[in-house]
Amino acid sequence: MDEAVFPRSFLKAYPRAVRAEGCFVYTADGQRYLDASGGAAVVTIGHGVEEVARAMAEQASRLAYVHSSQFHTASAEKLAERILTLAPEGMRQGGRVYFTSGGSEATETALKLARQYWIERGQKKRFRVISRLQSYHGSTLGALSVSGNVRRREPFAPMLSEWGHIPPCYCYRCPYGLRYPECNVECADELGRMLERDGSENVAAFIFEPIVGATLGAVAPPEGYVQRISEICREHGILMIADEVMTGMGRTGKPFAVEHWGTTPDMILVGKGIASGYAPLGAVIVAGHVAEAISSGSGAFLHGFTYGAHPVATAAGNAVLDYIEHENLFARVDVAGSEMRAALEPLKRFSVVGDVRGIGLLWGIEFVLDAKTREAFPADARIASRIQDDALEAGVMTYPIQGCVDGTRGDHILLAPPFTITTAMIQMLAAGLEKAIAELEKTHLAGMGGWSAQV
Ligand SMILES: Cc1ncc(COP(=O)(O)O)c(C=O)c1O
């Protein structure tokens, strides 16, 4: 039966999940796994919440589908209003929410909206969207064009547009070899330099993840970076798009990560946590002046998806927000985040752990040959996947990624558990990781990995 599904990888055998409840996923062979990664940083309220399932069933039986070009629905209207209430204050007045079926669609929507915004404003030359290396904005070709994830881009490079990428803000491996705060956030100034060097007359926007999720592993910028980026966008009159598909909807301890630095983007991309995995849902929060350019201009955004603002998906989004409010889960992120920090930081005692970093309930652990030199493992050692396998054996799900050093080398795992994770589960998570990391270190120090010689 399994032969019919096109898998993510033909090289791997996938356990069959049959049930999930709270922070655990259960498989057909009777195993139980702690969902320490929330899938791919998706699950916020935990699995199997009956209220959400009921709200979706109720919506499906009353009104499962209408096309968004023909009708609006109460569930989409209500969710849009609630999301605007959570958005940074400067986006609320006149702001709008454009619903999609996921993060990549949200990125595509923002790229096209940025372009149409400038056409409406009579600046028809503007189309380039500048972004950063070591970033991920989605799998579709437009989203991949602005993504700076080398591995994911490489095979498709001939099909992608190249509009310019600046280096990431990654203090552990500063692209300029500098240190904060003496660096004066040099990496942010690179945006200004690029705009001055290449000219900004054809630039529509800058897109970035305020905290880099998958590609770098929960890398937050230091104080001053996001503010500087925002100033440069304003000075050059280009739109600022914050991709909060992973960091939005409370994951970092605030509804949106940009709020840590008091900045107001022109668009915020939302996905993943917006429906906690109960339905495929994403959104673009659009600031009032951007929406107004369309409404008082041509009157219609030339864009749309068949399943945009889907009634059942937006009903799921509303039910997830109800649960978050009822259980006060946004406030829980800071508490559980501090417990995660206390549980994960001791892992730094292993020589193969280079960095443990994170904010709220988004954490990354970077693995290296030697914590002192920060030298990465060779890519073909597939250390992140190995940690994933060993942690899974210990009952803990993680999200492994490679390429944090240069797009190819560098191994890290991402941890993004549901906001409902308990103290005992955090201990279980740390114990599972400790087992996996101890095994890696043992193999490495015994020279049995076979990778030291390749460096
Ligand atoms: C920051 C960011 N943007 C966009 C996306 C793409 O979202 P989706 O996979 O829902 O299309 C992701 C997915 O991992 C992401 O982390």
Description:
It is a single chain. The chain has 455 residues and is an alpha/beta fold. The protein has two domains: 174 residues, Aspartate Aminotransferase, domain 1 (Alpha-Beta Complex); 274 residues, 3-Layer(aba) Sandwich (Aspartate Aminotransferase, domain 2), CATH 3.40.640.10. Helix content is 34%, strand content 15%. The chain has a seven-stranded mixed beta sheet, with helices on both faces. The longest helix is centred in the last third of the chain and has 23 residues. The model has no long low-confidence stretch (mean pLDDT 96).
Task: Give the SSE map.
Elements: E1 17-21, E2 24-27, E3 32-34, H1 38-41, H2 50-62, H3 74-86, E4 96-100, H4 103-120, E5 128-132, H5 141-146, H6 150-153, E6 165-166, H7 186-198, E7 203-208, H8 225-235, E8 239-243, E9 267-270, E10 282-286, H9 288-295, H10 311-326, H11 329-344, E11 353-359, E12 362-367, H12 383-393, E13 399-402, E14 411-415, H13 423-445
Parallel strand pairs: 5-6, 5-7, 7-8, 8-9
Antiparallel strand pairs: 1-2, 2-3, 4-10, 9-10, 11-12, 12-14, 13-14
Helix pairs in contact: 2-10, 3-10, 4-9, 7-8, 11-13, 12-13
Class by alpha and beta content: alpha/beta
The overall pLDDT average reads: 96
Order of helices and strands: EEEHHHEHEHHEHEHEEEHHHEEHEEH
Largest sheet: 7 strands, mixed
CATH superfamily of the largest domain: Type I PLP-dependent aspartate aminotransferase-like (Major domain)
Strand content: 5-15%
Helical segment count = 13
Number of domains: 2
The gross shape turns out to be globular
Essential attributes:
single chain, alpha/beta, 13 helices, Aspartate Aminotransferase, domain 2, seven-stranded mixed beta sheet, binds pyridoxal-5'-phosphate, Aspartate Aminotransferase, domain 1, 2 domains, 455 residues
